[in-house]
Structures are given as structure tokens and as C-alpha cells.
Specification:
globular, 8-stranded mixed beta sheet, 987 residues, 10-stranded mixed beta sheet, alpha+beta
Amino acid sequence: MAQPGWKSLVAEWPWFKGPGRYPISAYSEFMPPPRLGLAPYGEANPFLFLEDDPAGWHVTEYEEAFELRPGLARIAEQVMESMVHLANGREAHGISQAKLTNNPYWPHSLAERRGQLAHERFVLLLSLSLARTQDDKGRVRWTLFGSSEQGPARAFWRSFFQAPGVELPEDRALGVLRGLVSAAFALPETQLADLRGAGLRILPLRPPGAFPYWTEEPLPGWTRRLLFDEGEGLRGVRYLLTFRPFSELSPPLQRAYLAGELHLLPFPGSLVFWGAPPYWTLQRELPFALQIPLLHLVRRHEAPDGLRVPQSGWLHESTPAEPEPDLRHGPLRDRFTRTHRWARVQRHQDELALSALEDKMTHVLFSALPGELGLYGKPMARNAQIWSTDFHSLLDGPAATGQELAKAIARVKRGGLFGYRFHYPAMQVGHHAVYWQRPVVAYLDPHTKKASLPLENLLGYLTAYDTRDPRLADAVELWPRVLKREPHLAAVELRTEKQGRSPRQESLNARKLLDAPVLLGKSPLPRSFARSLLSAPKREGLDQWLDALPGRSGAAQTGGRLADELRAMIAPVRDPQPRPLTYAKTARRSFEVAYWKTIAELAEGRFLTKNNADCVLDAPTQKHLRHSHRDLNPLGGFLLDHYRALVRAAGMTGKALVGDLPFQWKTDFDYDWMGGWLHNQQGKTTERNLMVAIPGRDRSQAVIMADHYDTAFMEDRYEPAQGGDGARLAAAGADDNHSATAALMLGAPIFLALSREGLLGCDVWLIHLTGEEFPADCLGARKLCQSLVEGDLRLRLSNETPHDLSKTRARGVYILDMIAHNNEHDRDVFQIAPGTGPGSLWLAYQAQVSAELWNENTAKWNRRSSRCGLGRARRSKVSEKVPAIARHLALHCEVRPTYDPRSTLFNTDGQIFSDAGVPVALFMENYDINRVGYHDSHDTMANIDLDFGAALAAIAIESVARAATEPLPARRAWWARRERAKPRRKK
């Protein structure tokens, strides 16, 4: 028997097993859909689904308050303004002539009465198609796709159901209609007790033949006594709720409306988005094309408040044959402001408002030329759909092959006018893309002349389509459950008072505390871990923050109840601390000296060209090169030799494995000006991750400690505004990221010793990832993650022999990226940024315990004769001079989940693992986006803080040892039980 509802969406899990079944593109080239519910690697979201509610899809209070409500209000305002202009014959309505010509919702009989609809209240019952998408800042956000592909009516009528065949209570449903009519027509609800007697009727839609799935059926049972019988005439009928095109209404109905004797709900002009004939044509080739007409009307919006709105419109490529665009088709928007994950903006800021730089649209979509890409650009055509003026698809970017991309480029180069929309794929559960068909209910307030939204409880329904064959008539239907948990509702109301912080920071702090026990499976929540979840000044203790909550709430009583709820969830006293596993080896001067010298050798020794694109072949770069070969290859050899020597010295040859994971760099576009890319295509070189596998007692599991060993191009050598001349030259990379590489190198002998003594609970894998920096863009992380998910991981040993590691499951990945610069504006702080899911927070917890252990012991270590009475360390301007010994630093640890604006997981390899459901946690310094020494010529030893970096490296090593030793918490979910219940095959 088929599973119902959302369970049917994950029925084929694991669908991604096998080579090539889970490819991961560079996010700068193709932003993929967020995978929700049950991730490919098996991490489950405990908040999205309930096992006993197969029709339900949970929406958090934060999504509703911070994204959906303000976003829907903004859309309603823009559509309402357009409708008023349309009804009054003003060209500012923004709906193209091509959409209105032969549109059954705006026939000549209605259009010729422009400016004469004095009785119209402009009621909108606007069915939108929404889904969550991912942006380049790692935010998974509700996004407007446009008008509902399921037609104008289904979202409205499905709002009166809770599941298939399960209607809302009749009194509640009728109350919704009373509230709408009362608000829109300024009537007291007492006059609407009997809706039929008040003159309300319902006239069902007759779906057009091309869209039979637009049917409203089944209508709720209570509608039967309100159905309009055309044989009865119009006596007593004042309000007609219908989604029929105006041209299909009977002549008496049309005359009554035009004479002001009958009110139509919704305003008939607001349905024109479903009646545009050109998009009916385009829908045959792009199944979701009917979303586009409304999307054109709404301005691009990328700020984190409200709904994300991708840019759409028309672009013109001028040629002698096509010198001027034809503006009848829609808005001409042939410039675009690029955004990217390396931008120096805060995640809570509106990047579009801070950037005035626009590029030509054809360059943004298709150009791979170095001068047009700049330092961080890539062609964006994979995240776009493009069509011709005769409404035939030229490109469906998310599904496009290389050949299809080339064909689209050739066609656009010939010139002309082309429609487009940026198309970031909708959220997916398994093979299914999921959209929320949500109605917006609004009317024109006669006093403010603005859209007023009287109802927030019409929620529509969700549709899930199989991406392998998206038939809109065969959707799996789900129903939204907007959560109304009292503590979270109170958290939503909290205010952030400090200037410069995220305006939602205190709400998110409370959310972190409320979510953590569920994710961690640990109640009560340890006090120190609870404090680490707060993004608050270091001097503010947990109790102090809780005491301040009533004053940060809109209602002190509500804030007080929230504070009490949180206190009850947090342990009243600190947990006893376990014994350290590794600090006897790392809390030493010898470790600090080795750490400094290792970074210095990697950053300022013989390895110079350490970007995967090296050596770039353009003239500005070539004239600055000290040698013309790429140093990533010899650097990789140096690291492998280092580990082989350590394994021999530990007497673990044949037990601990050292090798690489080679692969080819592949892209959708050609970048033959990048030497590294070109040599990959010519077979002269390959990319490779480097790996050391250290055995533990349980060989079926592994904890991964990873860095990236490539370095970034220097912005100040490239950007003219910073004195650059366009050269793409690799940074020395002392902090980014040799500070992390050194931590892995120094951790190896410690893990080997633990392994030899039988103290590692499972394997530890040290993996140096290649190609994190642009333009490779998480190249090595994508390859490793793909291998883990597909179950096809094979290590190449020194004798070229492959060693199969596909049966070992990763407990999690610790990513180390930039760990040795102490933020001068907020000192001694570092972040642990976990990915989504329970496993990631468990990794963060182990790391926070390790940090607590370090801090508890610093006072004891600083009483040693070698450090007694010493102050803080000072930087050394030259790599040959190791900074003088100083006291051990106690570090302030902040755990920043993905929705925390200060999390920088998105800016690292960690995002790739999180998106696939591989548990991951990032170790990073307290990242300062505006500091000197990031992606520039100053990323040298002069910017390394030895006391900070050595302490953070030691904490990271301890965290890996703990995660490889502590038992995993038990996780129980229906799909896990299903896997266990499957009958075993007999051998």
C-alpha cells in the first residue's frame, strides 16, 4: 500500500546511491534546491513533519512572522497599486499589452469601462506559488515563484480543508467569509450572520480545456447552499465569489457588475495573470510558465526580511537587425546586480541596497570572459529560464545540458528580445519539488488607499511534483501547519536594542535555546552550552540575559513567561566536566612553536601559486608571476610525505592509510584563461583531496577533520579601487587557510597515538580539501560530499592501489577555516557554526565541551613557571621570529546555527556538507568581514595571533577526539525504524 502524504515523498530513499546520482555543481554556477525533511545522507529535520500527520507541513513561527507576513503584504501592495491603475486606465499598471490582449479576464467589455468602476473595492484573492530556495548567503528562504500554476482558485478553496476530505469546521469557515466581506465592504458582521440572506453567492470556475486540473473540486460542503443558480436571477444577490473569467460570465452578471449593482470577489482584473495567452503557449514547454506573469509585476527583493523575489523581465541584445526592443511584451530589465558569498556585507543587511554596480544581463547569464566576470562572477544561466518573443523556450537552466547552453548562447548572440526569469529551484523532498499555493486576501482601504490584509488564516495547500516528470495534474497534496507554540510566539516579539546587530538577534537567541534540546536530545540543556548559543556581549551571563527578557518583549508579562520557560529547560548548575583527551599534548610551548613554524613554511615558503585556477593566463597576471607552474600539486605532495613519515614513526604502516582522492575539475562553461582549469581538460593535471585514515575501534564510522589547502586570489592586487591592476594572484594564505592545515598536521601524531593505545572509538579521517576558494568554489568538498552520499569513496594509496572506504559512515565533519586571527574589535571569541540537523548540533556540543575544558585548565597551566605572570602575546611581523611565550588564552565560544546571521558556515566548505545532510560543524575565528588580511596581500604571518590560533587548534583537536569517542545519541524516526524493519536477505 502506498504511503500517504509526505511519507510518499521519501518512500524511495535512498534514491541517491550509486556513482553519478548526486552531482553537486559549484553554487556560483548553479544554486541547487534546498533538500528538506530527510536529507540525502540521512539527517532528518525533527520540526518539519510529524509521523502521525502525513498531510502536514510545518511552518515555524519565525518563517511566518519574519518572511511570509511582511512578504505577502509587500506583494499585495504592489499588485493592488497595479490593479487600481489598470481599472482607471493608467499605463503605470505595469502589465504588458501582450498579457492583456485576448485575455479572458480583461475582455474589451471590461477594459472599455476603465475609470468607471466607482463601486469597486478591489478585493484580491490572489493565489501565489511560493517555495523555499537557497541564496548565496546560505539562507533558505521563502521565495515568490509567481502566480499559482494550479490556477486562480484552488489555493483559496483548499484553505477550507485540513487534509484530503477533512474540512475545516463550518462555523470557522463561514467566519472567514464573514470577516472578508465585513472588512472589504465596511459592514458589521451582525449583518452577515446569514451569508445567503446578506446576498453572497458562489459561482464555480469552469476550468479551460488546457488546464483541467484548475478545477475547484471538491468544494467544502457548506458552499452548496451558497451556490449561484443562474436560473434564479439576481434578485437579492449583492456579492458573487467567482474565479470565472469576466468574459465567461452571463450578460446579466456582466451588466450588473458594470452598473455597480453587483460586487465581484475577487476583482476580475486581478485574475489576468492566469489568462495571458502567450504564457499558455509557453506552458507547453515550461510547465510552470503560468507563474511568470505575476512575477514580472513584483520588484526583485533579496533582503532577508520578507519574501525573496528573483528578478524577471525581458532583455534586449541589440544588433543592426534588432536595434530597439519591442516593449509590448513586458518590463525591460537588462541590467542585473550580482551578489556572491564573498561579499563584505552582513547577512542581515540588504546587499542590493549597498551595491550600485550593475552588469549587462547577457554578460551575467552567459559570459565566461575574465574581464566581464570580475573576481567573483560566474555565468548564471543555469539558474535562469529564457524564452523567445513567440514564447518558445530557449533555455530551462536548471535542467540544461552543455549543448543546450551553447545553443541558447548562440541564439541570444544573434540579437533580439528575450524573456527571462532567474529560477532558483524549489525545495525538494526526495525526488519531489514542493510549492506552497497560498492565497493573499486583500482589499483597497478607502482611507489609506493602500492594500489592507484582513485575513491571515487562509493558508492554501502545498503541491509536490516528481521532478523526473513534473505533471501538474498529479501533485501530492499537503497542508501547511503554521506552528503557534507559545514560547516561540513570545520569542518572535523580542526586540534587539543594540545598534549594528541583526534586528532579530534576540528572537533568534531565544529560538536557539528552544530548539537545542529537541535537536540535541539532551534535557535539561547544559548551562555552558546554553550560554554559548547566545550571541550576546561576553560580559553578559546567561542569568543576566534571561533577567533582561521581560524588558526586551513587547509585553513584559509575555517576556517573563518566556524567561521562566527557558530557565526550566536549562540545567540549574554546571555539569561535571570530563577529563581532557589531548590537552596534555597541545597545551605546550612546543605545540605553539610547531604551529607557528608550520604555518610559516606553508604560507611564506616555496609554495606560491596555490589557487586551483593558477596560473591564470591573462597579461596582468602573467607579468607578476615568479614562476609559471601551479604549486598546489607539490604542496599536496609535501603534505602526503609529512603524513607518511608520521605513520612510519608511529609504527602504524598498513594500519593508518595515507593517500589522495583524485578527480577532474568539470564546469558547465569553458574557462580556458585559467591555467589550472585548462590543464584539467587537457589531461595534464587532476585535482585531489588528500586523506589520512587513522583507525579506531569501530571501523564502520569515522569523524572527519578537514581544512582547505588552496588559497584565494588577492582583492587588492586585482581591484583598481584598491590599487590593483587586474592580476589574479594567490594569497600567501597564512590564516586562510594554512592556520587550519597546520592544525591537521599537528593533530595527526596525537590521533595516531590515541589509535595505537586503543582510545579512539571510531576512525579519524584527516582530509585536506582542495578548491574551496573561488573560482573552484568548494570543489573538493563537493567531490567528497558526493562520494559520501553516493557511497563510492575510494582512497588512492601511494602505489596507485585503490582502497574502498564506501562502507564507512561519517559521524560528522569538522571544518576548520581561518582559526588564527583574533578579531581586534571583539577579542578572544571564536565560532562553532553547525549545519542543520541533530548530528551537526551534537558535533557543536562536543566542540563546546572541549572549549570549556580548555578554559577551565588555562588558569592551572598559566601558573606553571614558564608562563607565570606573563601577559598577552604579541604578533610578530616576520615569520622567522616566533612570538614570545605568553599566557594561555581562555576563549569565548559562540555556537551559531545556520539561521544565526553571524554564522559563516555559508562562506565555507561546510555549507556543502550541511545541504546534503552530512553532520558538520565549522571552527572559525570571530570573522570580521572588513578586516585587512582577508583575501588580500596581508594574509601573512604578520596577521597571525599565535596564542589565539594555537588555543583554537588545540580545542579543535580535542573536539575531534571527543566526537570519535563519545557514543552517538539514539535517534528514532519512522524511516529509521522502517530501515531496521526491512527483512534481511539470506546469504
